[in-house]
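Researcher: Sequence recovery benchmark, item below. Answer with residues only.
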């Protein structure tokens, strides 16, 4: 009875909002309209939350900040943040900034920041700095991902011990049968990975190197009882593959919650293609303004 009443209330809410211009809706993995409150409650009970974003979506970045603030209210020092947007060899300067040891101007001049850092990620870093929340750089340095793309995993073996400290321990597993990697090798015209001449068998391996490294540094920097909230592009957590596969391989009993972000022309119903992409799907109008 309670579930039926909740479904009815959500239906009424949807109908009421159709006359407005909603900026987003949140759906569960089955495509049923749900609420931010439900997402927040589930996130607070998870071990790891993977927030898959659209890099240029202001709605994604706004909701990431709101989720961070709300989780901090209840988790306090049990909250840890991490992001694909920071490479592991930037951890020292990131730590120095979060702890207040260096100035903003020094951090922004010397760290390897994404071009959209100030519009999309700075607010997260500043919130972490203000509240002394650990912020973990999880992504493999781009130069090492490029090595894999050029010469395969074997290229990483020749790196120095210091260099290897910035990536997942070698050798790491690679499941070529995962759909997320197989899709990258498709060369049909519908692929968004670029022209077929740019696609090599090593391309999905380079992505796997990123996934394995991000998963490794999440686990390395999370203690029991903590919620690790991680920000990454949707690709790295959609369909419960990529990073999720590596996390589960290492720690099968982890409670992982995934969020995906999608754009649709109409958002009052979740398109079939987007169902089951994640535990929660953030659905945004295609016409939404981009942050860059």
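Model:
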């Amino acid at each position: 009875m309670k579930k039926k009443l909740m479904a009815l209330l959500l239906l009424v809410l949807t109908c009421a909002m159709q006359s407005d211009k909603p900026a987003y809706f949140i759906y569960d993995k089955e495509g049923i309209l749900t609420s931010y409150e439900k997402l927040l409650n589930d996130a607070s009970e998870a071990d790891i939350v993977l927030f898959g974003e659209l890099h240029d979506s202001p709605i994604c970045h706004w909701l990431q900040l709101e989720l961070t603030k709300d989780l901090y209210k209840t988790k306090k020092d049990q909250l840890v943040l991490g992001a694909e947007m920071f490479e592991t060899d930037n951890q020292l300067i990131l730590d120095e900034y979060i702890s207040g040891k260096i100035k903003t101007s020094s951090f922004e001049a010397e760290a390897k920041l994404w071009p959209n850092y100030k519009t999309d990620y700075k607010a997260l870093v500043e919130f972490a700095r203000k509240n002394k929340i650990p912020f973990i750089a999880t992504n493999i340095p781009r130069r090492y991902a490029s090595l894999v793309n050029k010469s395969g995993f074997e290229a990483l073996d020749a790196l120095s011990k210091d260099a290897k400290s910035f990536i997942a321990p070698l050798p790491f597993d690679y499941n070529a049968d995962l759909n997320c990697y197989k899709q990258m090798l498709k060369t049909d015209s519908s692929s968004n990975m670029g022209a077929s001449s740019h696609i090599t068998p090593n391309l999905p391996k380079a992505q796997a190197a990123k996934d394995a490294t991000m998963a490794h540094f999440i686990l390395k920097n999370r203690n029991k009882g903590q919620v690790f909230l991680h920000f990454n592009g949707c690709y790295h957590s959609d369909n419960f593959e990529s990073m999720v596969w590596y996390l589960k391989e290492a720690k099968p009993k982890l409670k992982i919650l995934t969020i995906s972000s999608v754009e649709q022309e109409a958002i009052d119903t979740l398109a079939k293609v987007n169902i089951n992409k994640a535990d929660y799907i953030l659905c945004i109008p295609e016409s939404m303004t981009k942050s860059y």
